[in-house]
Amino acid sequence: MATLARPTIINDLPDVILSNIIAAVSDVRSRNAAALVCRKWLVLERATRTSLTLRGNIRDLFMLPTCFRSVTHLDLSLVSPWGHPLLSPRAASSDGGDDADSVLIAHLLRHAFPIVTSLIVYARSPHTLQFLPVQWPHLKYIKLVRWHQRPQLASGDEFNLLFQGCPQLGSLDLSTFYCWTDDIPPALELNPLVAGNLTVFNLMNASFSEGFKTDEIRVITKCCPNLKELKIACMFDPMYIGFVGDEALVCISTNCPKLTVLHLADTSTLSNCRADPDEEGFTTDDAKFSVSTLIEVFSGLSLLEELVLDVCNNVRDSGPALEILNTKCPKLRSLKLGQFHGVSMPIGSKLDGVALCQGLKSLSIRNVGDLDDMGLIAIGRGCSRLAKFEIQSCKKITMRGMRTLASLLWKSLVDVRISCCKNLGASSSLKALEPIQERIQRLHIDCVWDSVEEIENLNGVEYGFDLNKTNGGEASTHGNGFGDTFGSMDDDIMFNRNKRCKYDYDLNCVCMEDNGHGNGFGGRTWDRLQYLSLWIGVGDLLTPLAAAGLEHCPNLEEIKIRVEGDCRLWSKPSERAFGLSTLWRYHKLVKMHLDCGDIIGYAHTAPSGQMDLSLWERFYLFGIGTLNLKELDYWPPQDRDVNQRSLSLPAAGLLQECITLRKLFIHGTAHEHFMMFLLRIPDLRDVQLREDYYPAPENDMSTEMRSDSLSRFEAALNRRQICD
Asked: Coiled-coil stretches, from where to where (predicted)?
């Protein structure tokens, strides 16, 4: 009898092809699931994994995995207990025995991961830089992390240890490494070979109190002539000696002509503090670099693809310099400008300034005091390929201008951030984005709730501009007037000439035939929105979010909520709960960042008539258990007088109600007995306390900080049986 042929299965593929398939899987949980199929898949998965983040306790060295021999990118910055020295003498010793322990741990890591070329490590102690990087002679990329205070060493000593052990270093990231600005130049001068090899250097660190000065930038760029990416926090304020001006900018373009990525930002712009929406956007003093200098710099950096110039003082009449970017930097795709004025000042149909940078795919503008709706529309006409747009602190922008921009960019725009614009509250921002609401994927708005009267006005207002009129309201008498966008010379770029569409007052009609649903832009469904970011003032409620225009977000997976303000100015909230329970309508929501770290209050006993931070935490976390969250990052509120961000008893009790959580990261401290509440979450696998803020508390002997307490909690967590 003829036997039935066995059906072909995936295991019948040659090992080489199957190995390539598994190697193409990037999601960690998917790779772990593949490794559980059979022993063959386990071997192939381990052999093809190139990136690994260790989360175990440094005390459990016997559990160090040795099967990931192909790992080239190793992240040790999250090893438990978080923030404690990875390699460090535990006590003073004259025989060097403790150094031997550090060397042993370093050798064990090298034995487990022999071909590492990229390393991320929390370097609280100089011993980590002395003994660890030297284990991998071919190390090319290093990111150092440290939120605690800098050790008492001479300037540059730490980096000398690093550079001497890494002769092939090509990329160094210090964006989250607490140090001094004068640590960098001496180390580069003492190690010219390593400095000459550097192609990527990230010095955009929010911990710098003043940022790098002109002399320091001159040394850095002179020692690193082969840099392709440079991100550096600067001091642009002319009130300080050595401020960054014409000389520093010219040094960068002259010494580093190969740059493709350049980020220059004032340290004051790196904080999360929200600006005053009522400010006009102009500062008292002007920046001390001229438009001619900017033109010279842009002309010398012809390879630029990404540029950030975020300063703290006025840069006036910047339009001519920005026009040069289009011709001198043809590869430019991302641009961020802060405190630049005159970026778009169109006259008639003629575009100018940043609107001429037609190749841009990402544009961010902040504190542009003279940008109005007509300038914003010109940007939409000229930068027709924008996929990401961010606008912050632009007082003259209204819903009409933003809505017209969204209509012009409806084919490409998928990522929008609207922040701190006086005329763009939550409802008006969402109303302005209706033309792209079925395409947008990432969104940030401020939860400044419009009044009932304003919402009613939004529902009955004519949204569009008559673009057939000039700024003065007179009808254009010639065929290529500014308003006749689709009848001008830009027709070939934006639309086919054979399908011209006259812009009239009702922008709701634009592109209605192409949305595939037949309901225009008037609906309330945000079909592709996956990430939502919100800012909200202390004491305000989240409950009006749906009524503002976000009723239906069927694919929303991640939300970030940042609350800011001084709760000491409030006796108590107006309602019992903040409103997290209203997020139940987003059925795919699995990841949340709840940042209350910018809430200031009383950590201990509050004055009469005031609430302490524990009661405010109960207000903000009430109802979180009704959500089906898998991952939660939570920043507790702070008391700046005692430098304390600690999880309170009400907060621990409410967090334990999140029965679907698998990962919980608390960016602060907590008492051990409060942490034990979290063991009642059945599927919780990963919990960590991270004091990742400046300055991280140094007192490791308190009941909130002891490594023994954290280790006991982790041991209890790991002893539990997890069903999957």
From this structure: none
